[in-house]
């Protein structure tokens, strides 16, 4: 059963509905914390690189879960709900430029593509880390399986892509502030509580699908564990002593 609520605050429409399911919200905030942890452990130096790699494995597990959840999750978590064609994106961009963009229940057409862009850039960061090496003490699990030129390319990508990721995160935060201040969308609150308010949020979801989420999260973690377990052992040639 879909639950909606409505209260009156100084004439502002505060109808709300459950839009973001709990597994999706956990994914979002765990990804934020894991990426912040990856950055911090890198900045702290080589003695924290083991934790850097563990957090990278967590990021990869979260991404695989999100891929599954994009097909198996509730309505607004599904790619089919927020990945729109060029026409819808152009129309929404035009309305946004005219100051006429309203609040949508799920991701708007521009927001949907920004989600895909962020997931893609984070995936590139996580996958390139599997082949990366500092050539001193730490080597990604699959570094020994690839030629040196490929590993060097992955090392370059890992560094360059991080700057792209920072730019997209900054753009994402700016968009959240815009919608929060301009439209009073309360996006941060919505990602904490799952409830989103606005004129077009009547069609909320009916549940969280927790059992399916737990099974898919376990599968995602198991796949990453298998990926790491299958990696060849590093050799002395992978390091400089």
Blueprint (SSEs and pairs):
Elements: E1 4-5, E2 8-9, E3 12-13, E4 16-18, H1 22-44, H2 49-72, H3 79-82, H4 86-97, H5 109-130, H6 148-182, H7 187-193, E5 195-197, H8 210-229
Antiparallel strand pairs: 1-4, 2-3, 4-5
Helix pairs in contact: 1-2, 2-5, 2-8, 5-6
Which tags fit this structure?
241 residues; mainly alpha; 3-stranded antiparallel beta sheet; two-stranded antiparallel ribbon; 8 helices; 5 strands; 5% strand
Summarize the structure.
61% of the residues lie in helices and 5% in strands.
Q: What does it look like?
A:
It is a single chain. With 241 residues, the protein is mainly alpha-helical. 61% of the residues lie in helices and 5% in strands. It has eight helices and five strands; from the N terminus they run ββββαααααααβα. Strands 1-4-5 form a three-stranded antiparallel beta sheet. It has a two-stranded antiparallel sheet with strand order 2-3. The longest helix is centred in the last third of the chain and has 35 residues, at 148-182. The model is unreliable at 6-13 (pLDDT under 50).
Q: What characteristic shape results from the CA principal axes?
A: globular
Tell me how many strands there are. Answer: 5
- Helical amount: 55-70%
Biggest sheet descriptor:
3 strands, antiparallel
Structural class per helix/strand content? mainly alpha
Total number of helices: 8
Low-confidence segments: 6-13
Overall pLDDT score: 86
**Approximately how much beta-strand content do the residues carry?**
under 5%
């Amino acid at each position: 059963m879909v639950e909606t609520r409505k209260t009156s605050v100084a004439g502002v429409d505060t109808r709300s509905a459950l839009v973001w399911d709990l597994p999706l919200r956990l994914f979002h905030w765990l990804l934020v914390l894991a990426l912040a942890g990856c950055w911090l452990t890198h900045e702290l130096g080589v003695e924290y690189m083991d934790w850097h790699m563990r957090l990278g494995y967590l990021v990869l597990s979260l991404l695989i879960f999100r891929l599954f959840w994009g097909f198996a999750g509730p309505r607004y978590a599904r790619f089919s709900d927020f990945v729109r064609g060029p026409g819808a994106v152009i129309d929404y961009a035009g309305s946004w430029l005219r100051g006429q963009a309203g609040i949508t229940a799920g991701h708007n057409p521009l927001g949907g593509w920004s989600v895909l862009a962020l997931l893609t850039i984070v995936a590139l960061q996580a996958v390139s880390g599997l082949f990366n090496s500092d050539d001193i003490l730490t080597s990604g699990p699959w570094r020994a399986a690839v030629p040196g030129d490929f590993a060097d390319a992955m090392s370059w990508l890992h560094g360059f892509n991080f700057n792209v990721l920072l730019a997209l995160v900054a753009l994402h935060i700016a968009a959240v502030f815009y919608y929060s201040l301009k439209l009073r969308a309360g996006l941060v609150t919505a990602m904490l509580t799952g409830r989103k308010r606005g004129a077009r949020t009547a069609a909320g979801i009916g549940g969280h699908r927790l059992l399916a989420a737990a099974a898919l999260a376990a599968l995602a973690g198991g796949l990453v564990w298998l990926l790491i377990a299958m990696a060849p052992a590093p050799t002395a040639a992978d390091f400089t002593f």
